Amino acid sequence: MTTRRSFLAGAGLLAAAGTVNRAALAALPEPVIQTSAATAAPLTPPTGRPYDPVVTLNGWTAPWRMNAGVKEFHLVAEPV
């Protein structure tokens, strides 16, 4: 049997999880979209020194963004 206390605790947890999830998703960079199956050319930074790209298993280069002068790489796991 569900009590009022457990219902309110569950509702509070869901509301807190919803706000944390939005904040975490807002920090993610936009995924790189490729319309062809050909290997993409490596991305080049607009500023800073060049780098050796990391090639993932599907042939794309890993997306990156500059954060306070540091290059961050993000891999997104997707179901196959």
Number of helices: 1
The major β-sheet equals: 2 strands, antiparallel
Mean pLDDT figure: 74
Number of domains: 2
Oligomer class = single chain
Poorly predicted runs: none
Indicate the radius of gyration in whole angstroms: 20 Å
Molecular shape: elongated
DSSP helix fraction: 25-40%
Number of strands: 2
- Fraction of residues in β-strands: 5-15%
Strand order of the largest sheet: 1-2
Structural class: alpha+beta
Secondary-structure blueprint of this entry?
Layout: H1 4-26, E1 64-67, E2 70-73
Antiparallel strand pairs: 1-2
Explain what the structure shows.
With 80 residues, the protein is α+β, with helices and mostly antiparallel strands. It has two domains: 1-30; 32-80, no CATH class. It is built from one helix and two strands. It has one helix spanning 4-26; strands spanning 64-67, 70-73. A two-stranded antiparallel ribbon has the order 1-2. Strand 1 (64-67) and strand 2 form a beta hairpin. The longest helix is centred in the first third of the chain and has 23 residues, at 4-26. The chain is elongated. The protein starts with a helix and ends in a 7-residue tail after the last strand.
Task: Describe this structure in a few short sentences.
With 80 residues, the chain is α+β, with helices and mostly antiparallel strands. It is built from one helix and two strands.
